[in-house]
Structures are given as structure tokens and as C-alpha cells.
């Protein structure tokens, strides 16, 4: 029999106990059912008298009968199977969780869609990261943060958040790994180093090599970011750490290092150093070599200061008389009192210590030596102070910098390049590229400096710029490819251009540059292959013609394959029959031979004249150029006369058509026509002059056939000679390549 004491206990247990223990732990036919559950009715525990369970009071103590295990599992006497009920509840809960997860996934996908469509949307990234932080979904957070850092690795604040999430939701080791990735991505971040060091101090204090681990981390941080003008907090933290561990000599060494670094709080460090020297005994804060050297200097100075005729022993006795107030000295070899300059741990009164001449001498010499470092450093800080004051945003952000900020950075870099050492100059460039990571000219300026100062690092800087920060800016990638080609690394140059072409498929420059890399490399078969691939893959007819034109020029001028070049141009004309430049380039193939190939030139002109796609005005121009060619290089006068007659006929037809065209246009209303009388004197004179010039021009064109086929006047849009360089005059001056 089992007594359920009260209803208050009913809420503290569940069916789980029965499910876990009864079928496996007890080997009985009948078992005690331990279910402290009374509400809403005693369905599972009917009363002894067999009355309706709902009629029993729930507040009094109840006695329950033993229920057979088989009957319980089968749900006899109207009872339900608890196991199936529990499974159903779990299934319903799982369905609810799945529904919630599905909703969360849909919300997450919305944030992802924004940054997939535009990876440069920094605000969209911040919303995504904020969402995964709130959801505490480690898998989603890792995916989001990793993708974010592939675009923006200089955001040290998000590295801290990422590491904190790993620490909270995963393991300490995973968080440490994230910190390592962060300081590798942005090694100049003093804040990130400090956060990392605090993390290690908090979570690894029980390790055997705890001090060494933290010490090494401090050294790495100082080496990476200790030269930063705003690195004072890191130096102070390092000093405090060594003081906590009673490593006074290490503290002195740290101060000696920081006193040579131009930092914002350079004076603060010197003051703290002087306090450090005054507070501790010289023997405890100096290296053995320096301490003994200074003590030797003190002894020599004492001998020199002794009166003439007085021996060293007498000088010593004199000194002993001076220090008589300190009491009798113990016998030599007895450790009752320390030697001068060494602390007496049993003596609280430090008055004798402060008045110790030797200790005072050594302290003064130590400070004097470091004061020279301080003054030299102070001068360096003064030369840079104005530039540092001009840096208002030393951290990374996608918002553009003000012009004054950019100007200050450029001038500061020029100053450091001319006056600073190499290590300090590199640090300044790296600082600059954190704030100016999205500016191509800053990266190129750094690369130009390294190319002369440290060429081995140029590739690394190019890679960081082109694959992370300036992925969508082609100029620096083109410069990288040119740099690789200049050093004979043609394969690397081709790979860089291919990757740029994949990132920005609508850009022609990387495609054409890649082809020309192969040409300069001496691979004509590869050049032809790439050109034909471009012709096949592009969908734009104008681009097909552009690539065909370049391929034909390469075949004719580099490989002297005129017939293949001719076929390429004819295929291009089949695709683009209205492209006048293709006809002209086809004519160039014959014109540039020595002597010019009359059949090839005439074939090109006849193709243009016979074309049904070209407008009559363009045909007249080609007929004019045909006539000019025959006049200059033709061998049959009959062909010249035939071309002249054909040209005159077409010119007259054009003239008749031009006269009919104005009558077909809608007439202006009388109100809109300005009467000559209504014009002022100057306007009337200008109108009369314009009419006279137009009449004279029309009369000349109608009567003088030579004027009609004067190609320099009629064909102003085409080059004035057959050389191909002039054929590109019609392209926009802003770019060598056509827009599309």
C-alpha cells in the first residue's frame, strides 16, 4: 500500500519515474505505483470502494490499491496506456518544436537572403549577426560569423562576440581558437588582444604552465600591436601582470622597452618607471650585470672622492663613521644585516634604506639612463603628435572617411616613410589599412613602399586586398596580375585574372588582359583558343564582333594568317551585318599588304555595298572609299570609271531622297514660325548667313561630283587612314574597352 500524503506533493513527480524504473528494475508481478498525482481526478488510482474517482476528495490522504503490471500496461478498467500517452505528448511537443524551428529557419533565411543578394550591405550583416546571437543557435552563428569575417575581418568587436558565443555555447578550447583567428586577422587590435589575455587569465589559471602561457601571449601581443600609438593599455596591463607575479626585473625590462615606443601616454610610463625604481631596491629590479656594473661605478666614485693622501681603507673608515648612526655592523659572514642596497625584510623602518648612499647612487643612475631614452622618445612623439591628433577614426567602418582624414593619413605615411624606420613605417601602414581598408589607393601606396623596402611581403598584401577587402574593385587585381607577370609568374597572373573574371563576369578588362598575358608568354594557340571561347560564350552580338575583330587582328598581324583572319571577319559579318567596322577591317587585310591586295580590298567594299542590312548612307560611304582606293592603287581605269558612275548615281539618288524628306515631315504651325521682321538685327543677320551657307553648300554638292565623294568630308565618323590604331578613335575616351 502506498499513501499519497497531500495534493501539494502531486506536482513534483511524473510518469517518468514509473517508466524508468518499474519495467526494468523490479521483477514483481505487482508493483507499487509511485505517482504523486491527484488532479484533476483519480483516474489512475481508483478508490477501494470502487466509487467514481471524481467523487473522492483530493485534499485528504488517500490509500491506493496495488495495480497489476500487465493490467496497467494494457489499460484495463478504463485506464489509458501511460506509455502511449507519454509518447503522444512527446510527439506533440516535438511537433511544436519542429514548427518553431521551421519558423526560426524561415526568419533566418530572410536575413541570409539580404546579404546573399548584396554582400556589401554591412547593415544587413549586422541584423543577421544580431539575430543569431539572440537565438543562441551555435551552428547558425558559426555559419553567419564565418561568412561575415570573409568580407569584414577587421571588425574586432564581432570577433569578441563570436568568441564569447563559443565560450557560452561550446567549449573554452573553441573560444580560444576563435580568438586566435581574430588576432591573426587583425593583429593590431589592442582591444582584441586585451580581451584574449583576460580570457586566458580567467579560464586557464589552474594549468601547470599558466604563467608561461600568459607571458607568451603578452609577448605576442606586444610584438604585434605594441608599436601602436594607442597601445598604452596593453603595456600597463603587462606591467601589472609582472608586478602581481613579483617579477620586478621583468617590470624594469618592460619599462625600458615602452620608453622607446612613441605612444600617447609616453610621459605616464616614465613616471610609473620612476615610482617603480624608488619603491624597490636596485638589486631586485635590475639585472645582475647592470647592478654589479653600477655598484662598481659607485665604489670608484667613492675612491675618487676621498681626500688626497687618504688610502682606500681610511676612506672606508670614514664612510663607516658617516654611517655610524645605523649601529654596529655584524661580523662578516653573518646574515644579521643585509649589504648596502639589499632589503632587510625584518626591519620595518626604511629610513636607513632611503639614506643609503649606494642605493641612492644606483637609483639615480638607473633613472638617468632611462631619462635619455625618454627624451629621445618624447622628441619622436612631438613630431607625430599633430598627425595622431588628426586621426579621428582609427577603427574599420564601411562609411567613407572625410577628405581631411584621408589627407592626414597620406601625409602621415609620407612623413613616416621619409623619417621613420622600416618597422615603424609598416606598423603605420597597417594601422592606416584598418581605417582605409576600402580605399584602393592606400593599398597600392603600401605595395609600392614594400616593393622597394621588403618585396617578400608584396604578394601577401595583394592577396589580402584582392580576395578580402576589395573583391569588387578590379584595378588592384589587375595590378596584382601585372606584378606577377613582371616577375615571370605567368601562371599566377593568369589565375588572378581568371578569378577576377569569375567575380565580375561583365567586365572585359580581365578577359582581354588574360589573353594578352598568354600572348606575351608566347602561347599563340592559347590566345586563339581564348578568343574563340569568348566569341562562343558571349551572348551580345556587339561583343562577339569585338572579340572577332581582335582575333582577326592577332591572326593577321602576329601570326600572318590572313586567310584565317578573313574567315573570322566574314563569320562575324554573318552575325552582325550592320557593323561597318568589320567591313573596314576586312578591307584593311588587303590594304596593309605590300603592295595592297586589290582583290581583297574590293571584295570587302563590294560586300558592304551589296549588303541588304546597311543603310544607303553607309553604302555611299563605302562606295566613296572604293573609288578612292581605285584612284590611288587600281590597275584598271575601266574599274575606276565604273565606280565613279556608280557613285554619282547613288549620290544623286541620295540627294533626291533628302529633298523629299522635309515635305514628309509635319509642318510647324504659323504661330511657331518666327518671321524675319520679328527678329532683332543680330538674329536676322545670323539667319540670313546660315541660309546663304546652306544654299551654297547645296549648290556645290549638286554640281560638283568631286566634292560629293570627298571622303574626308563625307566619312567623318570613320578613320582617315587604313591603319588600325585610328579605328579606335570612336571609342569613349574614358575607357579603352567598349561599354556594354
TrEMBL record:
**Signal peptide annotation:** none
Localization recorded for this chain is: Nucleus
* Keyword presence, Nucleus: yes
The record's annotation in Pfam families points to:
HAT_PRP39_C, HAT_PRP39_N
Arranged from A to Z, the UniProt key words for this protein are: mRNA processing, mRNA splicing, Nucleus, Repeat
Identify the SMART domains for this entry: HAT (SM00386)
- List compositional bias (Basic and acidic residues) regions by residue number: 76-90, 344-355, 657-676
The UniProt entry, under InterPro entries, shows:
HAT, HAT_PRP39_C, TPR-like_helical_dom_sf
* GO MF term set: pre-mRNA 5'-splice site binding
Q: Where is the composition biased (Pro residues)?
A: 329-341
One GO BP: mRNA 5'-splice site recognition
Q: Where is this region: Disordered?
A: 74-102, 302-355, 654-683
Q: Cellular component GO terms, alphabetically? A: commitment complex; U1 snRNP; U2-type prespliceosome
Family listed: Belongs to the PRP39 family.
* Known function: Involved in pre-mRNA splicing.
What is the protein's given name? Pre-mRNA-processing factor 39
Q: State the species of origin.
A: Amblyomma americanum (Lone star tick)
Amino acid at each position: 500500500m502506498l499513501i499519497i500524503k497531500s495534493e501539494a506533493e502531486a506536482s513534483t513527480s511524473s510518469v517518468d519515474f514509473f517508466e524508468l524504473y518499474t519495467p526494468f528494475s523490479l521483477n514483481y508481478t505487482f508493483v507499487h505505483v509511485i505517482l504523486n498525482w491527484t488532479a484533476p481526478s483519480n483516474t489512475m488510482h481508483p478508490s477501494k470502494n470502487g466509487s467514481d474517482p471524481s467523487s473522492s476528495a483530493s485534499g485528504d490522504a488517500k490509500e491506493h490499491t496495488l495495480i497489476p503490471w500487465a493490467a496497467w500496461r494494457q489499460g484495463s478498467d478504463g485506464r489509458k496506456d501511460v506509455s502511449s500517452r507519454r509518447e503522444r505528448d512527446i510527439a506533440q511537443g516535438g511537433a511544436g518544436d519542429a514548427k518553431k524551428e521551421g519558423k526560426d529557419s524561415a526568419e533566418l533565411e530572410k536575413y541570409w537572403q539580404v546579404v546573399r543578394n548584396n554582400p556589401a550591405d554591412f547593415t544587413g550583416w549586422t541584423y543577421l549577426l544580431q539575430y543569431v546571437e539572440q537565438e543562441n543557435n551555435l551552428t547558425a552563428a558559426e555559419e553567419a560569423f564565418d561568412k561575415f569575417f570573409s568580407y569584414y575581418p577587421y571588425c574586432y568587436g564581432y570577433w569578441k562576440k563570436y568568441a564569447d558565443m563559443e565560450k557560452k555555447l561550446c567549449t573554452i578550447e573553441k573560444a580560444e581558437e576563435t580568438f586566435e583567428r581574430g588576432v591573426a586577422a587583425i593583429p593590431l587590435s589592442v582591444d582584441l588582444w586585451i580581451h584574449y589575455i583576460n580570457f586566458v587569465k580567467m579560464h586557464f589559471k589552474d594549468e601547470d604552465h599558466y604563467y608561461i602561457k600568459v607571458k607568451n601571449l603578452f609577448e605576442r601581443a606586444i610584438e604585434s600591436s605594441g608599436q601602436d600609438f594607442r597601445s598604452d593599455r596593453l603595456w600597463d596591463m603587462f606591467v601589472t601582470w609582472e608586478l602581481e607575479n613579483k617579477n620586478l626585473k621583468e617590470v624594469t625590462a618592460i619599462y625600458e622597452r615602452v620608453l622607446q615606443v612613441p605612444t600617447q601616454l609616453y610621459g605616464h610610463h616614465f613616471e610609473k618607471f620612476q615610482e617603480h625604481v624608488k619603491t624597490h631596491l636596485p638589486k631586485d629590479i635590475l639585472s645582475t650585470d647592470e647592478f654589479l656594473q653600477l655598484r662598481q661605478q659607485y665604489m670608484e666614485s667613492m675612491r675618487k672622492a676621498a681626500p688626497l693622501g687618504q688610502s682606500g681603507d681610511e676612506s672606508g673608515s670614514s664612510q663607516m663613521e658617516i654611517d655610524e648612526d645605523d649601529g654596529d655592523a655584524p661580523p662578516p659572514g653573518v646574515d644579521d644585516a643585509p649589504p648596502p642596497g639589499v632589503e632587510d625584510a625584518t626591519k620595518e623602518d626604511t629610513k636607513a634604506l632611503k639614506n643609503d648612499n649606494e642605493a641612492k647612487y644606483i637609483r639615480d643612475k638607473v633613472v638617468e639612463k632611462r631619462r635619455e631614452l625618454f627624451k629621445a622618445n618624447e622628441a619622436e612623439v612631438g613630431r607625430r603628435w599633430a598627425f595622431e591628433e588628426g586621426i579621428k577614426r582609427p577603427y574599420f567602418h564601411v562609411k567613407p572617411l572625410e577628405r581631411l582624414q584621408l589627407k592626414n593619413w597620406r601625409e602621415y605615411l609620407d612623413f613616416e616613410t621619409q623619417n621613420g624606420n622600416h618597422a615603424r613605417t609598416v606598423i603605420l601602414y597597417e594601422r592606416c589599412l584598418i581605417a582605409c581598408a576600402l580605399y584602393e589607393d592606400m593599398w597600392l601606396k603600401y605595395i609600392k613602399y614594400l616593393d622597394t623596402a621588403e618585396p617578400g611581403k608584396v604578394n601577401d598584401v595583394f592577396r589580402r586586398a584582392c580576395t578580402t577587402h576589395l573583391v569588387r574593385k578590379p584595378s588592384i587585381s589587375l595590378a596584382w596580375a601585372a606584378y606577377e607577370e613582371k616577375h615571370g609568374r605567368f601562371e599566377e597572373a593568369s589565375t588572378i585574372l581568371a578569378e577576377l573574371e569569375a567575380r565580375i563576369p561583365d567586365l572585359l578588362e580581365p578577359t582581354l588582359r588574360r589573353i594578352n598575358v598568354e600572348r606575351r608568354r608566347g602561347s599563340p594557340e592559347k590566345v586563339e583558343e581564348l578568343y574563340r571561347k569568348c566569341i562562343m560564350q558571349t551572348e551580345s552580338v556587339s561583343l562577339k564582333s569585338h572579340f572577332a575583330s581582335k582575333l582577326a587582328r592577332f591572326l593577321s598581324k602576329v601570326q600572318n594568317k590572313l586567310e584565317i583572319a578573313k574567315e573570322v571577319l566574314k563569320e562575324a559579318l554573318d552575325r552582325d551585318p550592320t557593323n561597318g567596322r568589320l567591313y573596314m577591317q576586312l578591307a584593311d587585310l588587303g590594304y596593309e599588304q605590300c603592295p595592297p591586295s586589290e582583290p581583297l580590298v574590293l571584295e570587302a567594299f563590294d560586300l558592304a555595298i551589296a549588303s541588304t542590312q546597311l543603310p544607303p548612307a553607309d553604302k555611299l560611304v563605302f562606295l566613296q572609299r572604293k573609288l578612292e582606293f581605285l584612284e590611288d592603287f587600281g590597275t584598271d581605269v575601266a574599274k575606276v570609271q565604273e565606280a565613279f558612275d556608280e557613285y554619282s548615281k547613288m549620290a544623286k539618288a541620295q540627294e533626291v531622297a533628302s529633298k523629299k524628306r522635309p515635305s514628309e515631315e509635319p509642318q510647324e504651325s504659323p504661330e511657331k514660325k518666327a518671321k524675319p521682321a520679328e527678329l532683332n538685327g543680330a538674329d536676322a543677320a545670323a539667319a540670313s548667313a546660315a541660309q546663304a551657307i546652306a544654299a551654297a553648300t547645296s549648290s556645290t554638292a549638286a554640281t560638283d561630283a568631286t566634292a560629293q565623294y570627298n571622303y574626308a568630308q563625307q566619312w567623318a565618323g570613320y578613320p582617315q587612314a587604313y591603319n588600325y590604331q585610328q579605328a579606335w578613335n570612336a571609342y569613349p575616351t574614358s575607357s579603352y574597352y567598349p561599354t556594354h
